[in-house]
Write a structure and sequence with these properties.
By secondary structure, this protein is of the alpha/beta class. It contains 13 helices and 11 strands. It has 3 domains: about 25 residues, no CATH class; about 180 residues, Rossmann fold (3-Layer(aba) Sandwich); about 80 residues, Alpha-Beta Plaits (2-Layer Sandwich), CATH 3.30.70.20. The structure holds flavin mononucleotide and iron/sulfur cluster (SF4) (2 copies).
């Protein structure tokens, strides 16, 4: 009599290509050759949960979206985290579940995420979901994601969203500690619910907020984001800059050069504000209101993770 554990172990072994080939060869030899692959697919389908390969594609400046991705990975099986970048591998046809985890920018999507959606290739059978982190104005950003995927012939299974501390500190100050902790608490409760829906490949509606106003704002998002690359023109450093170079190391697109030990922005900005928030001296100003404002990053995401992830893949 097989125990469940033995069956699971066997299925994991079956996943390996060599074993698969051998099983098929045996089936071809002793059974009906034509249906050998079919038998194999049936076995796979019965145990598909164990065979799932999940990838979470994320973009994150201050760690909120990375935190969501990391927490989701803890809840899901066989999950790989991949940072979205312009030079990543866009052939992602090998995953059965793909999540796109992103921060809401200007009521819509970051440009780097839009570029990803234009180029990525998924398997037709993959279950796709979105997971937005947003400061308060989620609007209809999930519908933008949905329609971009639809244009490419892919269906979005669900569009989830979790409110996190807003990091657009050029516009408003960092939320107070009590408010931030309240959001973290809700996030801890919400992620297992979202992960359960993903495991079941649930078809859910896309989460939105602010009703018609939200839809209108998301409608102008693309126009606003088209100006994003030059947003760094308002960036400068004050006297506390010590030339440590951390701002360079966290920039996801290599938009900063050090000249005479001071950052110089190259106007290919993604507006993520990573340089601004991760500068240990709080020496970067974005306009004339930020010198009195706080700096923020998610407490469970460390500089090394953002630096490492700036370079490409983490697992
Ligand atoms: C350029 C920019 C634009 C933003 N626009 C919005 C917005 O339209 N609505 C919103 O709710 N939050 C907005 N935010 C806040 C972020 O979506 C939010 O803080 C997110 O959790 C940041 O994720 P990250 O830490 O992974 O970068 C914006 C942030 C930035 C930097
Ligand atoms: S991280 Fe801050 S202190 Fe370091 S070089 Fe950049 S601006 Fe200067
Ligand atoms: S320059 Fe700063 S805000 Fe712009 S993409 Fe790089 S880290 Fe993000």
């Amino acid at each position: 009599m097989y125990t469940i554990t033995t069956v699971q172990k066997t299925i994991i072994l079956i996943q390996r290509q060599k074993v698969k080939k051998r099983i098929i060869a045996v089936l071809v030899k002793f059974g009906n050759g034509k249906s050998a692959e079919t038998y194999f697919q049936i076995i796979k389908t019965i145990f598909w949960r164990k065979n799932m390969s999940t990838k979470l594609f994320y973009f994150s400046g201050t760690g909120n979206s990375l935190k969501l991705a990391k927490d989701m990975a803890q809840e899901l099986d066989n999950t790989e985290l991949l940072k979205i970048s312009y030079d990543m591998n866009f052939d992602q046809t090998d995953c059965t579940i793909a999540g796109i985890v992103y921060p809401v920018y200007c009521f819509g999507l970051p440009n780097i995420v839009s570029n990803f959606l234009e180029r990525v290739q998924f398997a037709d059978t993959a279950y796709l979901f979105g997971l937005a982190s947003y400061g308060g104005m989620l609007c209809s950003s999930g519908h933008i994601l949905k329609s971009r995927l639809k244009k490419r012939g892919y269906a979005l299974g669900a569009g989830f969203a979790v409110q996190m501390p807003g990091n657009a500190t050029n516009v408003y100050d960092v939320p107070k500690e009590g408010k931030r902790n309240g959001m973290y608490q809700k996030e801890r409760k919400r992620i297992p619910e979202i992960a359960a829906a993903v495991k079941d490949r649930k078809k859910c509606s896309v989460e939105t907020n602010l009703g018609i106003l939200g839809r209108l704002l998301s409608g102008v998002s693309a126009a606003m984001m088209s100006k994003c690359s030059g947003a760094d023109k308002s960036y400068s450093t004050d006297a506390s800059c010590n030339g440590c170079g951390i701002c360079l190391s966290v920039c996801p697109v290599g938009n900063i050069e050090l000249v005479d030990n001071r950052p110089v922005w190259q106007h290919r900005c993604e507006c993520c504000m990573a340089c601004f928030h991760w500068c240990p001296q709080a020496a970067i100003q974005a306009g004339n209101k930020t010198s009195s404002r706080g700096r923020y990053h998610h407490p469970d995401v460390h500089l090394k993770e953002i630096q490492k992830s700036s370079a490409g893949v983490i697992s």
